[in-house]
Design brief:
With 213 residues, the protein is α+β, with helices and mostly antiparallel strands. The chain is 25% helix and 43% strand. The strands form two sheets. Strands 1, 6, 7 and 8 form a four-stranded antiparallel sheet that branches. A four-stranded antiparallel sheet has the order 3-4-2-5. The longest helix has 25 residues. 24% of the residues are buried.
Length: 213
């Protein structure tokens, strides 16, 4: 066997590769905010409790999981004078069963939150998509290296080094909603089109270069 294949000091070709894989998101995040304003902190929190209580039956529904709750209470100012108090609760909701998304959105909008953002799509298990993106990134790096090897009048040798670049998933919100029986406003015409989650991978590879003898 040619010992030059194992010679780490021989000529090298370094290339970068990128790959991506897309598949439909199978869970989604929603962010909600409920707000109450009153003359005192006690009254503001009491009113906030009343508003959130109306949403709790929806939040406790099947296929849903509350992942975060946070409370903010602060004074309301007019010029240099305190005129009241504002209390707000922010809720992060994970929809693990996308078939309940339409009914959940309709029911939540009916509770009149101050703000509702989402859906932001995710993958329950992004590992398979990442592996495919990594495979494509390595193929891309090898293809580039083979091109340079031919251009230099030789052939591509074995891989000597591989380092990983940044990779990330890009969730894209959207879901076309079907008809529902749940009480609340109709959200079917809001244009929430389905968009897949993209997983990307990048790598830098170092290959041995074998000049033609």
């Amino acid at each position: 066997m040619d010992e030059s294949l194992f010679d780490a000091t021989g000529p090298e070709i370094v290339t970068e590769g990128a790959g991506w894989h897309e598949q439909p998101g199978d869970r989604a995040e929603l962010d909600l905010t409920y707000t109450a304003i009153a003359r005192t902190r006690t009254d503001a929190v009491h009113e906030l409790n009343h508003r959130v209580a109306g949403a709790n039956p929806v939040l406790d529904g099947p296929g849903l999981r509350v992942t975060r709750r946070s409370l903010r209470v602060h004074n309301e100012w007019r010029g240099n004078r305190v005129v009241g108090c504002r209390a707000a609760e922010e809720i992060a909701l994970l929809v693990t069963d996308v078939t309940v998304l339409e009914a959940t959105l309709s029911a939540l909008v009916a509770t009149e939150p101050t703000a509702l953002h989402g859906p932001r799509w995710q993958l329950t298990d992004p590992a398979a998509g990442l592996r495919e993106a990594q495979r494509l990134a390595v193929e891309d790096a090898r293809r580039r290296a083979e091109g340079y090897a031919v251009a230099l009048g030789g052939t591509l040798g074995p891989l000597r080094k591989l380092s990983e670049g940044l990779n990330h998933a890009l969730p894209a919100g959207g879901y076309r909603l079907a008809a529902a029986e749940a009480a609340g406003p109709d959200v079917r015409d809001l244009g929430l089109e389905p968009e897949p989650v993209r997983v990307t991978a990048q790598c830098t590879t170092t290959w041995a270069f074998l000049p033609t003898q």
